[in-house]
Amino acid sequence: MLSKPKYGWTTITIEDWQTEASYLFDVPFEWLRACLNAMEYNIPICLFVDEEGSCCYINSYYNNTYIIIERDETTLHNCRNTDFFDLTYSLITDIKHHFEDWVKWYPYEESEDDFIRRKKELKRLIDKTENSLYAAAEKRRKSFAEPNQTE
Fold first, then answer.
1. Phi (first) and psi of residue 10, to 5 degrees
2. d(Cα 67, Cα 125) in Å, to the nearest integer?
3. CA dihedral 20, 133, 96, 16 (to 10 degrees)
4. Using 50, 70 and 90 to split pLDDT, how confident is the model at 145?
5. Angle at CA 131, nearest 5°, toward 41 and 129?
6. Which of 108, 116, 123, 144 has the fewest CB atoms within 10 Å distance of its CB?
7. Which helix (H) or strand (E) holds 60?
8. What is the C-alpha R_g of the chain?
9. Confidence check: pLDDT of 141 > 90
10. What DSSP letter does each residue of 62-110 carry, written as one string?
């Protein structure tokens, strides 16, 4: 779902839809908070994407994910095979996979103390969101395929 962040940008891919998100919105923190609230309170997820000049809103709840794309015209994209559990799981997995890059991604954090604080807070937020995801998914009998560990 999220590529490795590079030069203040990350590529977002959900099914056949793709865009670039800017550092102007702190993707890992804001998106994890949105997912955490969705899992804890059983409410839809809304994720904001700043494309610097245009924006998108990724909205997800149970069976479907809808993306509202506001550029020259407003369009709607439906991701029929991605539910809000899948979205949360992919987000957590991708942030964990490039954890150190996400810690240093936000340009407004510059000192070593900033990075230490950000690293600690991001780890706490991932753990809390992941625990809430598994608890909510268990209630709906949703499971996740674990990545192949044969490497």
1. -140, 145
2. 24
3. -30
4. low
5. 65
6. 108
7. strand 55-61
8. 15
9. no
10. TTEEEEEEESSSEEEEEETT--HHHHHHHHHHHHHHTHHHHHTT-TT--
* Cα–Cα distance, 78 to 95 (Å, whole number): 24
* pLDDT score of 16: 96
For residues 17 and 62, which has the higher predicted lDDT (pLDDT)?
17
Measure Cα distances from 71 to 17, 22, 53, 57 in Å: 15, 15, 8, 12
Asked if residue 46 lies in contact with residue 34, where contact means CB atoms within 8 angstroms, the answer is yes
| Residue 103 zone, left/alpha/beta (φ > 0; ψ -120 to 50; rest) | alpha
CB 83 within 8 A of CB 71: no
The token pair that represents 147 in the structure block: 């990545």
Q: CB of 92 within 8 A of CB of 129?
A: yes
CA dist 74 and 150 (Å) reads 44
Main-chain phi, psi angles of 25, to 5 degrees = -120, 125
Q: How confident is the model at residue 151 (pLDDT cuts 50, 70, 90)?
A: very low
Flag whether pLDDT at 118 surpasses 60: yes
Separation between Cα atoms, residue 120 and residue 86, nearest integer Å: 25
